[in-house]
Amino acid sequence: PALIADIIRGATYRGEAGFWAELFSRKTAGRPLVKICGLTNGEDAELAAGLGADLLGFVFAASPRAADAEFVRSLGQRPAEGPGRVGVVVSPAPGTPGGAKLDALRLLKEGALDAIQFHGNEGPEECYRAAFPYYKALRPHAPEDTASIKRYGCPRVLIDAFVEGIAGGTGRQVSPSIIEAARCYGPLWLAGGLNPDNVRELVASFSPELIDASSGLECKPGKKDREKMHRFFEAVNGG
Questions:
Q1: Helix (H) or strand (E) segment spanning residue 85
Q2: Rounded distance, CA 142 to CA 162, Å?
């Protein structure tokens, strides 16, 4: 706990308002913001940025898409007009190691990451104690579970598909009834099974402010498929 507190106090990022203002400044009419997650190598990160991603996601949790801290550092300083970099963490169960989460916090302190995405069972208090830019991802079981969105103090909450025992990257889509319920609580951030073949319909049907894609763009876990990536962005951009 002392180490976590020290890392949080030392965070060098420009600040909460800066992250959100910069992200929202990238929004354009008729196109959602795009986060490409599960990046594990420089080639895929460069491809995502070049195609127009607004956020790049790096997983710091037990996952076949886990990122290495040195890889994220190797990306160097983020270009002024480049996409933001988000560390995806899953708080470990009590009594289990939390090294991956600490890696993400260190990278935030160093400025190699711009924000944290909490993707586990973290409650509002745990997220709130993280005094740096963050947002929460939720995996509602049913439409009524989306009411928990309003318990979190972050400007946005990401909705992902629920699969027992798996925090994310399942390729499963969120049910339309849950999506509709989530939209009642503010602008929709949507993850879960997005791919080149369904993204245009999902965007047209639900008008998400941000979409988050990972496994649906891969040729294998942790490696993006270039053809799928190009097709995905063509669909998002209306091509």
A1: strand 84-89
A2: 9
Judged by DSSP in three states, 7 sits in: helix
The C-alpha atoms of residue 210 and residue 189 are separated, in whole angstroms, by 5
What is d(CA 188, CA 152) in angstroms, rounded to the nearest whole number? Answer: 15
Positive or negative, the CA dihedral 30, 158, 162, 182 is negative
Q: How many residues does the chain have?
A: 239
DSSP at 229: H
pLDDT interval class at 9 (50, 70, 90): very low
User: DSSP letter at 15?
Assistant: -
Contact between 175 and 202 under an 8 Å Cβ cutoff? The reply is no
Q: What confidence score (pLDDT) does residue 11 get?
A: 43
Model confidence band, residue 7 (pLDDT cutoffs 50, 70, 90): very low
Residue bearing tokens 């990451």: 113
Closest CA to 179 of 135, 121, 140: 140
> Is-contact 212 190, C-beta < 8 A?
yes
- Nearest CA to 157 out of 140, 176, 144, 171 is that of 140
What does the pLDDT look like over 136-150, one tens digit per residue? Answer: 999 999 999 999 999
C-alpha 212/C-alpha 84 separation (Å) is 13
Strand-pairing partners, residue 223, are 220
The closest alpha carbon to 18, from 89, 104, 111, 97, belongs to: 111
* Partners of 138 in beta bridges: 159
Q: How far apart are CA 65 and CA 222, in angstroms?
A: 4
